[in-house]
Design goal:
Helix 12 crosses helix 14 and helix 12 packs antiparallel against helix 18. This protein is elongated. Strands 2, 3, 4, 5 and 10 form a 5-stranded mixed beta sheet that branches. Strands 12-11-21-20-19 form a 5-stranded antiparallel beta sheet, sandwiched between helices. A hairpin with a 5-residue loop joins strand 2 and strand 3. Helices cover about 35% and strands about 20% of the residues. With about 575 residues, it is an alpha+beta fold. It contains 19 helices and 21 strands. It catalyses: Preferential cleavage: (Ac)2-L-Lys-D-Ala-|-D-Ala. Also transpeptidation of peptidyl-alanyl moieties that are N-acyl substituents of D-alanine. Keywords: Carboxypeptidase, Cell cycle, Cell division, Cell inner membrane, Cell membrane, Cell shape, Cell wall biogenesis/degradation, Hydrolase, Membrane, Peptidoglycan synthesis, Protease, Septation, Transmembrane, Transmembrane helix. It is found in: Cell inner membrane; Membrane. Pathway: Cell wall biogenesis; peptidoglycan biosynthesis.
Amino acid sequence: MANPRTKKAATTALTKAVEYRIPVWRFALVLSVFLCLLIVVAGRMGYLHLVQQSFLAAQGEQRMVRDESIPAVRGDITDRNGEPLAVSSPVKSLWLNPKLFDVANAPKLAASLGISANKLTRRLKRNRQQGFMYIQRHLPPEKADKVLALKLRGVFSETEYRRFYPASEVTAHVVGMTNIDGKGQEGLELAYDDWLQGTSGQQRVVKDLLGNVIKQLNVSAVAEPGNELKLTLDLRLQYLAYRELKAVVQVHKASWGSAVLLDARNGDILALVNRPSYNPNNRATLNAKDMRNRALTDVVEPGSIMKAFTVAAALSNGKYTADSVIDTSPGYMRIKYKTIRDHRNYGLMSLTKVITKSSNIGVAKLAHEMGAEKLWSMLHDAKLGQATALGFPGEAVGKLPYPQKLDKLGLATLSFGYGLSATPLQLAQAYTAFANKGCVQEARLIATNEQVPCDQIMPASVAKDMSEMLETVIQRGGTGTRAKVEGYRVGGKTGTSHKVGKGGYQDSEYTAVFAGIAPISDPRFVLVVVIDRPQGQEYYGGEVAAPVFARIMEEALRTLQIAPDQSKDFHVAEISVL
């Protein structure tokens, strides 16, 4: 007979087994749900793979493939002999994505570039929500590569071009400069920006998640470089003209100075310099006052150098010759409220002597006898009061009063260079008439083989007479003896004008000018030197500007190997850089 206890225990165990056994229907439910989920996932995968494959591929490509611009190299600017005046060299600019960059790496990045870590950190915090921020631009490629080698997340580079000016301050006013983005801002860089800048290209590249280019797919548009711009300048002459001008402005503590050297045969500007100047390679030192191209933007009352045109107008009428005599006694004349004077009473003077001694009375009497219309026509035909053909940014036009507005006093003062204004370039252009058989040749800066027709403003015979008269100014007894060039026949005219102030003409402020041509035996070159507000005991054009003319013209003639008029052993001057 079974033990009652054993029977009870067995019954209890069976009851518990039945209680904890999983029902079949519950297991089937779980399995069904799992199978359904598996079917949904598999179906979605199949849908994406078979139906939306092209869409997803395009989306992935958009996240990895980029179209990038290929920068175009800007065209070079050269002198007439091909010497570089403005060139572009490849550089790298570093930038970062503030959203990706770890600010904790700022000191490391700053140290590699030699910049302030604190300033960089502050910039990062200000631009934290931006996706782009330049770190440094226009770095030498090797320096940028060292920074990139640090592999700092969020730091990238791009290739750009930096403009460099080999002649620096010597050609700054003519060539001008670009901004950091390569856009013309001054001078010919601005005037010919479209011609120089070229056309950017386009390429498609693959980038990784950090933005680094890992593959170039294709180039859809090749970058086209800008056009070269060849100038009429001769860099050798530009250097020597700048050197001499810099010295005289410094010695005489002048406000500014300009010198313009032209080839009278074709109007080519061989040298055009100003002082003060600036270094276009260093934007940190730029000063707006120093950046003025005063040879084109600033006007002066030229003074006595205009007497040559008054005498030329008289000769052109056929009523006078170089030997015609004018009575300048008693050395002064009263017109309205103004007394016009010569340095002394020269008495009877030939027209040649009027030029030699620079007689105010002589030219005033000529002007009164000719009348305003004839003198004005000569000056207007010489292109005074008109812009030149250069199209240079900011070029001044100057002033030439209409003949109807000239009373007797105005006509007299106009005859010796007061009451009108002109730039140094306009004066040089006008003087080409005396070196080019009476024909004014338009000045030009862009080299071309085309011969621009000149404007005949006086007979060739008058121009020849005038050149010989101008030669007497350089000889003993003339006002410009310090413009003499050893071994060559040169001619020119001195000019000294009072500066205009608040109360009228100032007694102690002057503009010193010399305009000349060389060689007289076969005139070819015109050189005008303007020195504004020279300080000290010397301020006349014959004292301040004439010596600069002599030094520049002498070296220019020898550098260009122009045969001397006198038999003497000359050697070609070597031009030293500043």
